[in-house]
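[READ THE FOLD]
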Amino acid sequence: MTEQMASGIELMFAGMGIVFLFLTMLVVAINIMSALVQRFFPEIPISKTIPGITTDIDKSVVAAITAAVHQYRKKHN
């Protein structure tokens, strides 16, 4: 029985060691890939405004949309 316990414990540590090595290699590979992507494909700063869209909205349009939303909520509540 003692020989089986020793074999079981040895197998357990071997399995845990293999899993630990695999996970360590996975973390290293992900870090390397991340560094390569950041090096060769840097982020392009995104402008805050979208070209072609104006921010001037007619007040009557805003009032019409507000009234429509208010009527919809009143009817469906």
In short: The chain has a mean pLDDT of 89.
